[in-house]
Every structure is written in structure tokens, then in C-alpha cells.
Amino acid sequence: MASVVRWANLPMQCDVRKPMAEPRNRYSTVSLVFHWGLALLVLAQVLLITAHEATEGPMSREFVQVHKALGLTVLILTLARIGWRMANPALPSPAGTPDWQKFAAKATHILFYVLLIGIPLFGWAASSAGGRDIDWFGLFNWPLLPITQSRDLAGTLMDLHKAAVKLLYVLIALHVLAALKHQFVDRDNVLHRMIPLIPRRP
Q: Looking at the record's lineage, which domain of life comes first (predicted)?
């Protein structure tokens, strides 16, 4: 009995409490793949439509077909990215970030999603209204939307497609400027979150 009492009075030699998880300091690999993969696809879209406008004949039409197929791929990946983001919330803003900057960042990301869904949808609808098949990388013909076929409607939808692309350019420029501000003015680790090769500041 005395030995039991002595054992009970001994100081604890280990702490059985689970250590608190450290906060994430960068986005996951899946998030990085979505972010930079979509960025590269958007760049490819710009190059494809530029090549289309600079050429004529079958080659020009081929650039358009690849542009359409990539656009629908962007649509699918954007929807998948939204699903991933819902299951994996964005990292919080750095401490001390003004509320207006937090609001602007959130609004910018939402608008990115809206445009990356809306732009392909407008293009898809324009092709459907024009009765033009969409060849998805030679694998199958993407189904056209069940809308009225009309040259005027197709032209209107294409105008909306182009207007949304211009808005996307503006948004990308603002996004890049904001990232550079965080890196060289605020000198925080926001850019490190999306580009892990950039050293993390202590």
C-alpha cells in the first residue's frame, strides 16, 4: 500500500496533452496546382486567340477549336477549385491587415471565380447559338446548349464573352499589383503562400 502511495505522489514524467497544431503558412499542393494551372491555361487562351487573329485558313480555325476546348477545361477546373476551396478555406490575412483590404481580397477572388465560369459559358453559348460544334481535343464533340440558334444572339453572346475577358485582364493586373505590394511594401509572407520558393520572412 505504501508503494502505491509513493507512486501516486511521483511527479508526472510526460505530458499526455496533444500539441497544438501550428497554423498553416502556405497553401496546400492541390491549391497551388489549381491556382497556377488555371493561370497557365488563361495565358494559353490569350496566346491561342492572338495566334487565331494573326493567321488565316485551317490553321486559324484550329487555334479557335483548341481555344474552345481549353475554355471548357477552365470551366471544369474552376468548378472543381470552388469545391476544393469550400472544403479547404483560404488562409487568413496577415495580422494588422485593414478591413477594407480583407474585403477587397475576398471580392477579387469571388469575381475571379465568376469570370472564370462566365467567360467559358458565354463562349459555349455563343457556339451553341451559332450552331458551331465544339471538338474537345479530338476526343468527342462537346454537347451544345439547348438555346435558340441565331446569328444575332451568337454575336451578342460573343460580345459579352469579350467584355468579360477585358474585365479579367483588369482583375489580373490588380491581383499582380496587390501581390507585389505585399512582397515589397508590406513585406509579409502572402506571396510565399502561393510561391513556396520565395523565402519565408521570420
A: Bacteria
Cα separations in angstroms, 189 against 27, 62, 66, 88, 202: 12, 42, 37, 19, 9
Instruction: Tell me the three state secondary structure of residue 30.
Output: helix
Per-residue cell: 105:
481580397
Q: Which amino acid is at 3?
A: S
CB 134 within 8 A of CB 144: yes
Rg, C-alpha atoms of the chain: 25
Class of domain 27-87+98-194: mainly alpha
Query: Domain-by-domain residue ranges, the chain?
Result: 27-87+98-194
Rounded to whole angstroms, the Cα distance separating 58 from 52 reads 10
Cell numbers for 101? 483590404
pTM: 0.85
Which residues have C-beta within 8 Å of that of residue 52, sequence separation ≥ 6?
Answer: 60, 63, 64, 67
Per-residue pLDDT reduced to its tens digit, 32-86: 999 999 999 999 999 999 999 999 999 999 999 999 999 999 999 999 999 999 9
> Could you count the other beta carbons within 10 Å of the beta carbon of residue 128?
22
Position 195, amino acid: I
